[in-house]
Amino acid sequence: MEKPSNLLLKLTRRLFENLDNQEKFIEALIAPQSLIPVSFGARINQKSYRFQ
Fold first, then answer.
1. How far apart are CA 52 and CA 45, in angstroms?
2. Has residue 51 got a pLDDT over 60?
3. What is the pLDDT of residue 28?
4. Residue of 27, 26, 28 lying closest to 14 (CA atoms)
5. According to the model, what pLDDT value does residue 25 have?
6. Which tens digit of pLDDT belongs to each residue from 30-47?
7. Distance CA 28, CA 25 (A)
8. In 1-52, which residue ranges form alpha helices assigned H by DSSP?
9. Does 9 reside within a domain?
10. Looking at residue 47, what DSSP letter applies?
11. What domain range includes position 15?
12. What is the C-alpha to C-alpha distance for residues 7 and 40, in angstroms, rounded to an integer?
């Protein structure tokens, strides 16, 4: 893991009091997990414009 910038560390300390949450946040920003592409479809009822 590369060393986070001082600005990122400062932001993380302001956002999270818990050290474990700080580490998870930094790790998620520095080394994000790749997402599996997903497509989803929806039918729209034209009369009420509500998803069904």
1. 7
2. no
3. 92
4. 26
5. 95
6. 988 887 777 666 666 556
7. 5
8. 6-15, 19-30
9. yes
10. T
11. 1-34
12. 38
Burial label, 8 (beta-carbon count in 10 A; 0-12, 13-18, 19+): middle
Q: How many domains does the chain have?
A: 1
52 domain residue, yes or no? no
How many Å is the maximal CA-CA distance in the chain? Answer: 55
- pLDDT per position as a tens digit, 8-30: 999 999 999 999 999 999 999 99
* CA distance readout (Å), 31 to 9, 22, 26, 35, 38: 15, 14, 8, 12, 21
Alpha carbon of residue 2 to chain centroid: 19
Q: What token pair was written down for 15?
A: 């956002």
